[in-house]
Amino acid sequence: MRIGIVCYPTFGGSGVLATELGKALAQEGHAVHFITYQQPVRLTEFLPNLFYHEVQVPTYPLFDFPPYETALASTMVDVIRNHELDLLHVHYAIPHASAAYMAKQILQTEGKNIPVITTLHGTDITLVGRDKTYEPVVTFSINQSDAITAVSENLRQETLNHFRIEKPIHVIQNFVDTSRFRRKPIDAFRQVLAPKGEKILIHASNFRRIKRIPDVVRIFAGVRAAMPAKLLFIGDGPERSTAEELSRELGVFDCVRFVGKQDQIEDILSIADLFLLTSEYESFGLAALEAMAAGVPVISTNVGGLAEINLDGETGYACAVGDIESMSRHAIDLLKDPAQLERFRKAARIQAARFDIQHILPQYEALYRMVAPAAADQ
C-alpha cells in the first residue's frame, strides 16, 4: 500500500511512534510518505520505499502567525495526487485531523476518496483538545475520520468522556522495537559517567510542565542522600532551567548531567539502573516502555495509561502524583537489593516484549485494509 503519515517531527511520543511505525511499514514493503514541516528526528536510515515531503509555510507581512494548517492540507493534496496514496494516517489530532479533512474534501471534488485514520496520542485530547478554542474543530475532524485509534485504553476512555465521538475508537497500543533496545554491555561508557560505581538514574522527556521535572530532582536528592548516585536528564524543553536551579538548591547539581536530545537513547538506557517518570498524566508512557525494553525498572506515577505498562511491584513501582517520599523510598530499596533489582529487570524486559512492534504492526495493517480494501487487494 501507499501510505501517507502526518506527524510532529520532534522527540515527543507521537512523533517517535509515527516515525517508527512508518519505518516498520516500509520494511514490510509498503511505500511510506512522511508529510511534516521538518524531517522527523527518528527518520535516520535510508529505505528505498520511504519518502519525506517538507511542508513549506510561506511568510507574508499580512500574517502574524503563518497558516500552517492550510499549507499542510495543500501539501497533503499535492503528495496524494502525485504519488497516488491509498490512505492518510495522521498522528495527533491538532491540527493534523482537521488538515486531513480539508485535503479529503478537496480531493473528493476530483473524484478521489482518500481514507483518513486519526491516531490520538494524549495531550491532543486531555489538554489542548479540551480548550474551548479548539474543541468544536477537534470533535468534528475526529468524527470525520474514517477510523480512529488511541494508544491506550485509558486514552480511549478519556476521549469518550470529554468529546462526543460518534465512531468506535480502536485501541492500538504504542510499541517498542525490543531488538533495538536489547541491553548492551557498555562498561567503558558507564565507567566514564559513574567512575566510583554510582547508581545511574535516568529521566527522558520534552521537559514540559506536565512531566513534573522538579519531582525527578527531589526523588534523586533523596536517593543521593542514601547512596552514591548519578542522574542523567535526556531531552530538553522549558523546564530544564528549573531542574538546573533546583539541583543547585538541593546540593546535587554536581551529580546531575543534562545530555540533551539523543537519537541513540538505547545506548544510554543500557547503562541505567532506574528510570524515573513523574508525570501528572501520561496517555501511555512510551519513554517508560523503551526503558523497560532495555531492562530498566521504572519508578513512575500511577496515572493515565502508565498502569497498562508499568506493573506495580513487578516491573517497577507506581505511586501517586507528587508522592516524592514513596518514590524515593522505593528507588532506594530497589537499588540496595541487587537480587530484587535483577528480578525487576527481567520482568521489565518480559513486559516490554508484549508491546514489541511485531505484535502491534499487524493491527495497523489490518486497520489499513479495513479502510482501504481496494488498495489492499492490489
Features:
single chain, alpha/beta, 6-stranded parallel sheet, 2 domains, 43% helix, 7-stranded parallel sheet, 15 helices, globular, Rossmann fold
N-to-C CA distance: 8 Å
Biggest sheet overview: 7 strands, parallel
The sequence of SSEs as H and E is EHEEHEHEHHEHEHEHEHEHEHEEHHHH
The residue-averaged pLDDT reads: 92
Helix content: 40-55%
Q: How many individual helices?
A: 15
Strand content: 15-25%
Task: Report Rg.
Answer: 21 Å
Low-confidence stretches: none
Oligomer: single chain
Query: Helices and strands: which structural class?
Result: alpha/beta
Number of strands: 13
Describe the model.
With 378 residues, the chain is an alpha/beta fold. It folds into 2 domains: 2-175 and 356-376, 3-Layer(aba) Sandwich (Rossmann fold); 187-353, Glycogen Phosphorylase B (Rossmann fold, 3-Layer(aba) Sandwich). Helices cover 43% and strands 16% of the residues. It has 15 helices and 13 strands. The chain has helices at 13-27, 68-83, 93-108, 123-126, 135-143, 153-162, 187-193, 213-226, 240-249, 265-269, 286-293, 324-335, 338-353, 357-371, 373-376, and strands spanning 2-6, 31-36, 50-54, 87-91, 116-120, 147-150, 169-171, 199-204, 229-234, 256-260, 274-277, 298-301, 316-319. The protein has a 7-stranded parallel β-sheet, with helices on both faces. It has a 6-stranded parallel β-sheet with strand order 10-9-8-11-12-13, sandwiched between helices. α11 (286-293) links the parallel β11 and β12 (298-301). α8 packs parallel to α9, α8 packs across α12 (324-335) and α11 (286-293) crosses α13. The longest helix is centred in the first third of the chain and has 16 residues, at 68-83. It is globular and about 70 Å long. 48% of the residues are buried. The mean pLDDT is 92.
